[in-house]
Amino acid sequence: MRFFLLIVLLLGIFFRFTHLDHKVYWYDEAITSLRASGYTEQEVVQDFSKKSVVSVTELQRYQHPDGTRSVIDTVESVAKEDPQHPPLYYGLGNFWFHSIGSSPALARLLPALLSLLAFPSAYWLCQEIFVETGVFASRLPTYLMIGLIAISPFHVLYAQESRQYSLWFVTTLLSTASLLRAIRLNTRISWGIYLLTLVINLYTFLMAGLVMVAHGLYVMLIYGFRHQKTLKGYFVASVLGVIAFLPEVWILIINKSQANEGLDWTYLYSLKNSELSDIWIQHLGRLFFDVNQEPWDFYVHRVLLVLTVYAFYRLCRQTPMSVWLLIILLTAVSTLPLMMPDWISGGMRSTKARYMIPGLLGVQLAITYLLARNLASPALKSWHNKVWRLVLVILVSGSILSCAVNAQATVWYNKDHNGENIAVAKIINQTTHPLLISDATVGHLLSLSHSLNPTVQILIQTRCATCPIQPSGTFRVPMPAAEELKRFSDVFLYRYNPSKDWLKELAKQQNYKFEPVVFGFAKFSKDRPVLWRVIPI
């Protein structure tokens, strides 16, 4: 079994570092590079509002630090324009960019390396929750958990994304493991370690607050007022953790309107409840199987749902309350506050699997328990043991297959935007002396710039996504005189997901013919062009 899991671990590491530059460097990653380099979107808007035609190289400089921007500039950029995101990962990115590099591959190398910390962290958590509690006499669940995380297509996917999610998974593992250790030892040092991991978790991602709530409910329900020393240790550590996080809370309060603009997409659009339930099942299934092919994903994910429900049933029936309650709370508290508002009043909070990382961790712990219990119990008949070995092999094989398919793709479901960048860039790059005209937002232009040849000329009147919102029909394309376009071999117009009002304004433009050449990649934008060839009349 150990040799089998060692092979799985090595495969997981291999997939994390394979084709780091292959997938589209999408909007969120481009914004991460902007922040980590110490710039703001507003600076880009102001800079290019004063210029005429420039090269892609000039736009790209906002994706790389120039030596004058420090980590303080990075923190200020996040606080001013993205206050809903704590600054820890962006600060790490600033140091990484200055010391290692800031190309897409090198930017993604940071989260890939951070994701490796999940292996010892998962080992520690499983030791605390399964071994130290006496549920298992061996370390089998720890090895199984590490193996499932290593080749999980979900974790591999986010290990290759230049965002904070792989770090958040690690800090969630660490804070939960350190809580259990602090409860077991009940010393000042152990509670101090919990305090440290709690603060790191909060400064990694704002929704770590839900993990903290789950921890608090667990301590209260298990120990209540009967174990005052334990309760006191947790209370002091959590209060100090909140105090340490108050500066970020204050930033969020004074920049509330800015944060709301960054999060307005979560409640401006709604899905049918049947669509929501399908997405939630996908979140769970993608932990183990994700080849992006129907009907395979559809059926396999529902089988995995049944396996998960059975795993939680066995967990609650066969383990003490101190074990199953923590996993249940970790799963429920971090997911229901996202799911229920979407279900009742509409929204898209729960459609992003990355926001449910603590809940998905709970699912993996339940599956790990189920597998370990059926593989380790000597009371089971040999055929029963062989069946569960087959289940493990099937889970691992499906995960490896998913990672192999994923590694070859240029776009996957976690890239919410910019899936058409490859097609757009292919058309523009094959021309001899093109001009790209656009009034797209900063993030979409920066994302596209990673796919364009550095010498491509651009004429932009870019917009700031975190600045006051322009009316949906605002048409701000800087169209030059027809005579000026003659010096270019080809002229293109780019706008990501144009609104219907914007398209109406485009149709009113005179002296030019706009010929659509590339349409949107996402389902909601497949009927709308994103790239037009501009032909003077």
Overall, the morphology is globular
Number of strands: 6
Stretches with pLDDT under 50, minimum 5 residues:
none
The computed structural class is: mainly alpha
Oligomeric state as shown: single chain
Mean pLDDT score, rounded? Answer: 93
Strand order of the largest sheet: 1-3-2-4-6-5
Largest sheet: 6 strands, mixed
The number of helical segments is 25
- The fraction of residues in strands falls at 5-15%
Give your account of this protein's structure.
- The protein has 537 residues and is mainly alpha-helical.
- The chain is 61% helix and 6% strand.
- It contains 25 helices and 6 strands.
- It has a 6-stranded mixed β-sheet with strand order 1-3-2-4-6-5.
- Strand 2, helix 24 and strand 3 form a beta-alpha-beta unit.
- Helix 2 crosses helix 6 and helix 8 runs parallel beside helix 11.
- The model has no long low-confidence stretch (mean pLDDT 93).
Summary of the model, kept short:
By secondary structure, the protein is mainly alpha-helical. The chain is 61% helix and 6% strand.
Keywords summarizing the entry:
mainly alpha; 6 strands; 61% helix; 537 residues
Strand and helix layout:
Layout lengths: L1 H15 L10 H10 L4 H8 L5 E2 H5 L10 H11 L6 H12 L4 H12 L2 H14 L8 H11 L2 H7 L5 H21 L2 H17 L3 H16 L4 H27 L1 H8 L1 H4 L4 H13 L10 H23 L2 H13 L2 H10 L11 H20 L5 H27 L12 H9 L4 E5 L3 H8 L7 E4 L29 E5 L5 H8 L4 E8 L9 E8 L1
Parallel strand pairs: 2-3, 2-4
Antiparallel strand pairs: 1-3, 4-6, 5-6
